[in-house]
Each structure stands twice: as C-alpha cells, then as structure tokens.
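Re-running rRNA methyltransferase to confirm reproducibility after the cluster update. Everything else is unchanged from the original entry.
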Amino acid sequence: MRNTSSTSKNNAPRNNKLKPSSNLIMNGSVRVRVIRTLLAIQNGQSLSSVLDPLLNSLHDGDKGFAHALLLTTLRQWHALARLLDTLADNPIDEVEVRTTIQVGLVQLLYLEVADHAAIHETVEAVKEIEFAHASGLVNAILRKVAKNPSKFRKKCDKKHSLPNWLAYQLKQDWSEQYDELTQGLRQAAPMFLRVNTAIGSVEDYQHTLDGAEIDADLVELTSGIHLPNASATTLSTTGLRLHQSTAVNALPHFAEGVASVQDLHAQLAAPIINTALMAKLSAESSDANDDEKSDELHILDACAAPGGKLAHWLELISSNESSLFHVKQNDESVSMVSKVKLTAIDNEAPRIERIHTNLQRLNLSQHDLQQAEKNIELNIVCADATTWQGAGKKKSKLVFDAILLDSPCTATGVIRRHPDISILRTEEDIEQTALLQADILHNLWPQLKVGGYLLYVTCSILKQENVDQMQDFMTYYTNVAAIEFSDDCNWGIAQTIGRQCLPIDGTSGDGFYYALLQKTSE
Ligand SMILES: C[S@@+](CC[C@H](N)C(=O)[O-])C[C@H]1O[C@@H](n2cnc3c(N)ncnc32)[C@H](O)[C@@H]1O
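Result of re-run:
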C-alpha cells in the first residue's frame, strides 16, 4: 500500500454489472450517481478519485446532498450492512441491490430525508440501475425501517462500523479505548488549518477569518522532548479548528498561500524534527571550534507527497522565529548554518506533481526560495525509498542530519476523512505495509549521520505499524536511542517508544503515531 487510499486491493464483492469509474457514466438521478460511485469504490476505486467526478457532474444545488449521502453511507457502511442482514428474510447477494438499500437506509436513519422522498426516490434508483426486479424488496425494507427509525438507528449505532478484522485488531491494541475509538471512527473529522507563519501569525489569520464570518478556534499542541545532555526542550504548534467545514476557495487569501488544510496532529511533524535539530545545532555550536562547525544541513523528507509536512517545515525554516539559520545560545541568536539542503522523495510521479503545485501556492518552490534569498536548496526526486541512496558519488553513506519518514501505512488513523479505507483495506495489507515500512527504515537508517534524528510518523492506529515496528527496529540496531516526549504532552498516549494519537475526541485530530530516534554511533 503506497498511500492513504489509492492503491489497495479490496475484499468487496466484484460481481456488479457497473464498471469502475474510468468508464463510470455519471448520469441519472443524484441517488443513482451516488450508488454508482459506491459501486466503483467497492470495485477498488478510491474515494478521492471518484468524488470530484461525482460532484462535478451535478448542479450546485445537488452537490451538498450527494456529498452527505456518499460520505455518510461510507462512514456507516459496515453497520448498515449488518442491519440489512437482519432486515431481509433471505440473504441479498446482489451488490447493486445491497448498495441501493444502504443508500436508502442512510436517508432514513442519518440524513432526515422525508420518508416518502427517501423511499420513492430509492425505489426509482434501483429501477434506473436496471435492477427493477428488486424494487419490491427495496420498497418493503425501507418502509419497515421508516415505521420505527429510532429503533433501527439505535441498532445500527450499537456496534462499530468497521470490517470485523479491523475491529478485532483494534480491540487487541486498544481495549481500554475501544468503544470510544470505534465510535469516533464513524464520525466526520473537524477541519483544521495550518497558517503559513512565514507570511503571518495564526492569530492574525483567525482575525481575518472572523472578518469573513468563518468561526475558528486556536488549538495549541505542546510537548517537551528529552534530548541527550539537555533538559526537556519544549515545542509547540498552533492550528485553527473551523467550526464548520468550508470550501478552500472560500478561505480568505488561500490562493496566496496564507493557510493550508492540514490535520491538527499532522502539524506536529515539522515542529518536532525542527526543534530536535535546533537543539542539536545549539549544543554543537557551543562545543565546536569555528572550523569544526557544519556549514550545511542536509535534511531528507523520505515519503514527501503531496508535501503537507514538507511545506510546513519550509515555512518554519523560512520564518525568522524558528529558523535553523539562527539558533539560540544563552538567549542570544547565533548564526550556525549557512545553507539548508532539503531533499524530498516519493515514488509516485503524479503525487510528486502535487508537491510542486502545493509549494507554488505557498510561495515555497525552489524558484520562490531563491528569489527570497533563503539559502535553502530544495530537490524533489521521484524515487523508491526502499532502495534510493542520497550519497550519489560521495564516499560516505552518512548524508543526512535529519530524516522525516512519514511512512506509507494502512491509514487507519484517517478513516474519518477517508471512510473508503474501511472498504478498501484488507487484513493482509497490515503485514505487507509493515514489511514495506521496515524496508524503508533499513534503507534510510545507514544514511543518517551520527547524532542525527529520524522522525518516524504514520497515520495508522495499528500497533504493528507503530510501536511494534519501532521495537523491532530498536532490537535490530544497537546505535539508536529513542527520544522521550515529556509526560505533560497535551497530545497522544505515551507508548514504550513514541506517542500515539487516537481519533476519539470529535474535536481533535487524526490517529497519528510519532517516534523520534537519534543515531548514537556509526
Ligand atoms: C503518508 S503519505 C506522505 C504524506 C506527506 N508526507 C505529506 O505530509 O503530505 C506516504 C507517501 O509515501 C509514498 N510512498 C509509498 N511507498 C514509497 C516508497 N517505496 N518510496 C517512496 N515513497 C513511497 C506514497 O506515494 C505517499 O505519497
């Protein structure tokens, strides 16, 4: 699996007559289009690849309903499927008919569509997709539910809405948090913004949003990291949580790069590694003679696309406050590094294109950085992190002062935003993904300089990809120290190595895992 939801196999039935979205014909009623979209997802298409074609095929007035119908059906998918099995006298095998009924159930149970409209339009939809023989069945089931929606809603809400294998694994990993976690995963996630602090402050942008009648709260994440030979070094990052999801083109100055949409917990990566690097530089600058000081800092973003964390890091480096070019020493700002070389790799060319587009919007492309005389050299390369060598022709493999490994993962921590994951992922994906992560780690670790940091990040909530992966890694290598986060962190749950955020609280961020490692010797 290479990213959140685009390339996985799926275990959904494949006997539908309707073909996936490459030749998905977007015509018919809104419900028919949503049903076809859901069939395409069950056939292996990701939500992100089919959502825009669906919405673009509709009149503006229908887009909101279609979006809510599709996303809510996906979020409640497995619970609806279980409910459906209790509603029919005989098993319903046809995936088109099951999908249509699930779309009907969502209207009755979650979207408060008037009964007559929900039932009539859904029965018409099943005829339109050429399964008219099931119209009586669809009608009967939906009428039964419409007689007592609160009873059926209760039944549907009772358990999780996940495939059983995933629910089972979460019970193993998070027995204490299991109920809250599985319920949290079937809710919509809040929308968070990251403000480009190289341009302006978070508070100022909140004020600007206020002027545009967009309500947002400041949310600060704070933490300490226990670096060797130093007392806990504190770090913090502040995001904005919108009260209501808003289209990006409605956000003031979005096109000019003032803000980006980024989950709150994803906003931890750049500050963690930047803080560790600044502390390291600060310690080195007080120890070393002038001629021993390193002049260039070489940083790798190993799985960089579409560039969210890379852009955040560039924003931090280019803003005066958190710059790596000037480190604090005895409360004085000391010039340390004259150049930062940032290499970003990803193995998917189309996703690399998205890095370029995103950086251009944020005025952080190599061209912009040069124009602004930032002394940052940015190289973006399409390469496989399991084999790529950053040393090129250099003799020594030890190239990087810091590596951000935002690893490919099962993305189980972002199911709220990508509910198609619960249809597309299979149990086998966990093992395969963990192997890929280990391959990447083994290829990159030898390329980290002694004293350098590697920040391992996933948006998974499965221990096999996170703390267990780190434990295996630390058993294999003897030259690694796990840096501890302080106990007063206001995010995540302490693990034996690293911290795990769980998407439990409806106002908080996604299920990210963070572990900061330092290389202790060659
Ligand atoms: C979690 S996403 C990275 C998100 C990115 N860091 C950000 O903040 O926007 C993981 C990325 O790993 C990439 N990837 C998967 N396998 C890879 C490999 N073997 N080598 C390099 N990149 C890989 C995927 O294409 C995907 O873009």
